[in-house]
Amino acid sequence: MGADMSRSVLVNLELIGLRAPARRLRPVAAGPFALLSLVVALLPIRPAGLWLAAVIACYALPWLLGLWERRPGRWRLSARGLEHLAADGTVVEAYELSRVEEFAVTADDGVLTIFHRFGATVAGPLAEMGFDLLSFYITARRLGITTHVIDGDRSLFEDDGLPQEDEAPRALGRRTEQRLRDQEAALLAVAHEPRTASRTDTGRLATTTTGRRRTTALGVLVTLLSLTMVTRIALESGVAFGGRLMGGLWALVGGVAMMTARRRRLRSAPLSWTIMPSELRIRHATVGEWRVRGGAVAAAVVGPGTAIDPVSGRPAADQTVVTLFGHRLEVLARLPAHGLDAFQLTHALDERGYHVVTPDQAVPRPSEYGLAGLPEIFSRVPGGRLVVDDDGIGWADGAGDVILRMPRDRIGGMELLTVDGHAWLRMYDDEGDEFLAAPLSMLRISRTDLRDAARRVQLPITDAEYDAYVNAAFYGSMTHLETAEPAKEKPKKTLPEARLDVPTRTRALAYAVTATLCELVAVLGSLWLRADLGGFWPALAWSAPSGLVLGLAGAWLYDRNRPQLRVSALGISSVTRLGRTEWSVTRQALGGVGIDEAEAPRLVVWSPAGRVLRRVSFPPDLTELRRACERHGLPWGPPDAGHGAAPPPEL
Q1: If you average pLDDT over every residue of the chain, what do you get?
Q2: Fewest beta carbons less than 10 Å away: which of 49, 272, 410, 629?
């Protein structure tokens, strides 16, 4: 009886790839056809009515091709194997389950490689196939297919990337696979747990849409104006070159305006979630609607996945997707959540009785976290303590003999921090994995002694709190010395944030280079069109000012949204002139700001463990940046840089 039930579950287990809805009309190659309208307008087509019809055809052809475009198929992973189905359900290509020996997915680019008895076949990226990594991994394992997720990209399996015959085989990293196994274990743990809802009311979450209708209306108006101007030019100017040029420019403006308005309308389409303990209702204005019964949902995974791109209508990777699993770990639905706050969505689902699993879900750690990870010899050696020397870090007994040693080439980083008022040490190996976390009182060494000894022998150690303390103390002492009036001190105010941009000389050089290139194009255009415009000098008379204006306007449009560095007491971030934040590193996660000389001199932001968190693509004024970091107490330089100042008392 049990064997029959497991066989029926295996037969019913299948994973269907995502596919765009069929009712949506989408233009094909709207951008190339917009450029084609400019080229067609410049052609000397006679009579003027035929020229007008050719220009307008460039607007209509993308939509006509969209009507004739065949609906894309989808992929299916089931007991029959991996199959590619056409729109009518017929099998286009198939990889039978009995012939597949192993699946391998590279974590960086998500490419699926199928290994069989005759070699290997690249099926393609999982996102383009309509699958997400977690559900594909779980479904393939339940079907009995050996599946591995390899850290890296597809080049790991290329012939050029394989080791030579006389070299030892290299081990492939599988940290991503371990995280997937942890998520699978979490799903199995909550698959049959009873649901307990702390709130029975209805939760509603929706994305904010600002200026969607205005942008659409403006795009439609510009398109209609462009068509009107093209028609007027055809009726008045005939097929003269000046009229053709202006008509082509208006046609290009109209095509770009229509394409931009459509993209804006689809990108900012409202998404709403209605969360009830008994049901989930999701509505996306351009993709579709979903209704899922709450009792059928065993767990919801909130994290990266695959969703339908509203603009292209094809599956694409997304950072926020909710995948619903049933009680047999079958995939019930993959719901879009782009634009919603993941924190609010996760807690809204959890409060209404849905078991939520996140990729970065922290394992509950007791207050004595790290003590269980200490080697047993630590407690067996009487009078044992942590020692630091030129060979690395070791555990010595009462007589000073080192019993256990961690070589310095195996130490990837050390971090000193404060937990519940006590100094702690975290250690990472050369692969970046944490292997030791314990209070310094258990290691019988003070914070100052450990920091000074490690920096003396040049071991990678960071103490962000100490560095911030030194920087703040230095700035406070310098401010006190520079104060002219020793009068009554005013209450301290929060330092204003500092905005750092590229130097003025660099900006002026960018303007000059852009204007020079546009002038060069204007001169070449004058040489090309001199026959149609009455000679070289008349053509240059109107093209040179136009090129200068276009060059300066383009440089200004780029410069007005140039990224800047924002330094404050809360951390460092990159923001544009229009206020959009590109990335941000908080003070707690910041280990240092400075120049990285490893590959090329570049401004980088380090973590306390010495990892490069961000690389700054634009070169700000380094002197001003250093002063801003010191003013706000942010560490300057790599985390393991030595400091000659005397250490303060234990933090």
Answers
A1: 78
A2: 49
Q: How far is Cα 6 from Cα 1, in angstroms, rounded to an integer? A: 9
**Rg of the chain on CA atoms, in Å:** 32
**% the chain with pLDDT above 70:** 81
Q: What is the pLDDT of residues 128-149, one digit of tens each?
A: 888 998 999 999 988 888 888 8
Q: Kindly give the interhelix angle for 133-142 and 175-190, rounded to the nearest 10 degrees.
A: 70
pLDDT in tens, 375-390: 555 666 666 788 888 8
User: What burial class does residue 38 get, using C-beta atoms within 10 Å of its C-beta: 0-12 exposed, 13-18 middle, 19+ buried?
Assistant: buried
CB count in 10 Å sphere of residue 515: 19
Please identify which residue in the block is written with the tokens 């359900």: 89
Pairing mode of beta strands 434-439, 356-357: unpaired
Strand-pairing partners, residue 316, are: 307
| Residue 286 near residue 269, CB atoms below 8 Å | yes
Give DSSP secondary structure letters for 40-108. Answer: HHHS--SSHHHHHHHHHHHHHHHHHHHHHPPPP-EEEEETTEEEEE-TTS-EEEEEEGGGEEEEEEETT
- Does 647 score more than 70 pLDDT? no
Determine the Cα–Cα distance for residues 331 and 139; give it in Å rounded to an integer: 9
Contacts of 402 (CB under 8 A, 6+ apart): 387, 394, 395, 396
Backbone angles phi, psi at 376, to 5 degrees: -65, -25
Question: Is the pLDDT reported for residue 471 higher than 60?
Answer: yes
